[in-house]
Write a structure and sequence with these properties.
The protein is α+β, with helices and mostly antiparallel strands and about 350 residues long. About 40% of the residues lie in helices and about 20% in strands. It has 12 helices and 10 strands.
Length: about 350
C-alpha cells in the first residue's frame, strides 16, 4: 500500500498489527459506509461491485386526472434510474424542476477517479440509499504516523475522501475530506481544513464539476499539510500548567467566557451566579487536566504525549459529541457530520484549539 506515505516498512506492519487484525481491513467495516469495494482499479469497477453503475434520465411528469386520463405537469420531471446496473426496469427516484441537471456518476465521481489514477486514493466503499436516490463513494487518501503511543506503537491518522450525489433533487453533489485518529476514532479535521466542495444540480453544474475535480484532486496535498501540522504539534512539549491555561482560553473562546476574578458588583445575585459558573468551569478544566496528566483522553485512549498534539486530542475528544447508534451508522458518517456546510460546535472547537496552539511557542 504505497500511500502509507509516512511509515517505514516495519511501522506499516506494526500499524496494522497494533490496531487489531490488520486494522486496514477492519477500517472498512468500522469507519467506512456501504459495500466493500477495496481492490477496485477504477471508480466504474467499484460502482459495479456495489450495483451502483447505473444511469439517470429525466422523463415528463404525468398527473392522473378524471376518468384515468393523464396530463403532463408543466415544468416538472421525474428523475428515473434507467434499467441496468442491477435494475431490470426503469425506477422513478424523485420529482425535479425544469432547471435540474443530472450528474452522471462518471462526472460526479470524476475527482475520485483522477485521484485513483494518480495513486493518491484507494477506493474503500460505495453506498446507495432509496434505490439509488443518493449514492456515495469513499476512499482512503493515506495513513500517516504522527508520533508514538506510550506502548511504542505508531499513532496513526487516516485521511479519507467522501463524495456523494443525489438523483432525486434532495441535495447537491458534495465532496469532503476528513481525518480520523485510528486509536480512538476521534475526528481530527477542523472547519478551515475540511476541503468541502458543493456543486448544485444546475445548468452550469457540469462545468463546475470539472473545476471541482481539479480542486478535489488537491485534497491529497491538504491531507499531507494537515498531518504535518499534527506532527509539528507533537514536537512541542506542554506542561500541566500550560495545558490548564490553554483549556481556559479555549473554553472562553467556544463557550460563554467566565472570568477568573469575581465581578466588581454589589449585587449578591451576580456574585453567586459567577461563583456557580466559575466552580463548574474549574471542575471541567480539572477533569481535562487530569486526563492530560494521565496520558489519556477522557475516553481512555492514549492521547499522544505531553505535547500540543496530546492537548489537541484531549480537548477535541472531550468537547465534541460522540456518535450514537440512533444518529450515526458508523464513525465515518460521524466524522462527516462534523464537517457541515456551516461551522458547528464540534468543528469550532477544533478550529479554535488549533489557532490557540499555533500561537503558543
Amino acid at each position: 500500500m504505497g500511500f502509507l506515505h509516512n511509515l517505514s516498512k516495519d511501522d506499516k506492519r506494526a500499524a496494522m498489527d497494533a490496531l487489531g487484525q490488520g486494522r486496514i481491513d477492519g477500517i472498512v467495516e468500522q469507519s467506512f459506509r456501504g459495500a466493500n469495494i477495496r481492490g477496485s482499479k477504477s471508480v466504474s469497477e467499484g460502482l459495479g461491485k456495489a450495483n451502483a453503475d447505473f444511469e439517470v434520465g429525466l422523463r415528463p411528469l404525468l398527473a392522473i386526472i378524471d376518468k384515468g386520463t393523464t396530463a403532463e405537469v408543466n415544468g416538472k420531471y421525474a428523475s428515473v434510474r434507467l434499467k441496468g446496473g442491477g435494475s431490470l426496469t426503469d425506477i422513478p427516484l424523485g420529482v425535479v424542476g425544469a432547471g435540474y441537471v443530472t450528474h452522471p456518476h462518471s462526472i460526479a465521481f470524476a475527482a475520485a477517479q483522477a485521484m485513483v489514477e494518480a495513486g493518491s486514493l484507494e477506493l474503500m466503499s460505495c453506498w446507495q440509499e432509496g434505490g439509488g436516490r443518493r449514492v456515495g463513494l469513499e476512499g482512503l487518501i493515506g495513513l500517516t504516523e504522527v508520533g508514538r503511543l506510550s506502548s511504542g506503537e505508531p499513532d496513526i491518522i487516516a485521511q479519507a475522501l467522501s463524495i456523494e450525489t443525489s438523483h432525486d433533487g434532495s441535495r447537491s453533489t458534495t465532496a469532503s475530506r476528513f481525518a480520523v485518529r485510528l486509536i480512538c476514532d476521534n475526528g481530527m479535521t477542523s472547519f478551515e481544513l475540511a476541503n468541502r466542495v458543493r456543486i448544485p444540480h444546475t445548468s452550469r453544474s457540469v462545468d463546475h464539476l470539472k473545476v471541482a475535480t481539479a480542486l478535489i484532486s488537491n485534497m491529497a496535498e491538504k491531507a499531507i499539510e494537515e498531518t504535518e501540522l499534527f506532527q509539528t504539534l507533537a514536537k512541542k512539549t506542554m506542561t500541566k500548567k500550560q495545558f490548564a491555561n490553554f483549556v481556559e482560553d479555549l473554553f472562553n473562546a467556544v463557550r460563554r467566557p467566565v472570568t477568573k476574578q469575581a465581578p466588581s458588583s454589589s449585587l449578591e445575585g451576580e456574585i453567586e451566579a459567577w461563583e456557580r459558573s466559575r466552580a463548574r468551569r474549574d471542575t471541567e478544566i480539572e477533569e481535562l487536566v487530569s486526563s492530560f496528566s494521565r496520558g489519556t483522553t477522557t475516553e481512555g485512549a492514549d492521547h499522544g504525549g505531553s505535547n500540543q498534539y496530546g492537548a489537541y486530542n484531549v480537548v477535541t475528544d472531550s468537547l465534541t459529541p460522540r456518535p450514537t447508534e440512533e444518529r450515526y451508522a458508523d464513525a465515518a458518517r460521524f466524522a462527516r457530520s462534523l464537517i457541515g456546510e456551516r461551522e458547528g460546535h464540534s468543528s469550532r472547537v477544533r478550529s479554535q484549539a488549533l489557532r490557540l496552539l499555533q500561537r503558543r511557542r
